[in-house]
Amino acid sequence: xxxxxxxxRELRLENGLTMENAAKIVGIAKSTYAGYESEFRQPxxxxxxxxxxxxxxxxxxxxxxxxxxxxxxxDSLDAKExxxxxxxxxxxxxxxxxxxxxxxxLLEAITAxxxxxxxxxxxx
Length: 124
Prior knowledge:
Shape: elongated
Organism: Mesobacillus foraminis
Distance between the termini: 56 Å
Strand content: under 5%
GO molecular function, one term: DNA binding
Pfam family, one: HTH_3
CATH class of the largest domain: Mainly Alpha
Keywords: DNA-binding
Oligomer: single chain
CATH architecture of the largest domain: Orthogonal Bundle
Number of domains: 2
Protein name: DNA-binding XRE family transcriptional regulator
Largest sheet: 2 strands, antiparallel
Helix content: 55-70%
Order of helices and strands: HHHHHHEEH
CATH topology of the largest domain: 434 Repressor (Amino-terminal Domain)
Strand order of the largest sheet: 1-2
């Protein structure tokens, strides 16, 4: 798995930045930034968030917890795909399989209703 430092370096180079430019983005010294890329130092959560915002990626991507690069990828996520994931939660509270099943049933009912309305409109 690629480490945080290597991922940070790749993003910096993709964006045509020097270490000094990247350091200025979050208001740190170039030497501190170099420590992040070498993984000698670990950034604070607020610095991680600033890098993620600047590069338009998720913090999870920066930390190599996901390969989904752009935060915008979630803007059009199919709910069916979401429910195929394990360990879903709502604000940190785990959702059990029976609860997820109820939510899936509700979503299926909503989409069926919308499909029927569209058919009626197309035919009417």
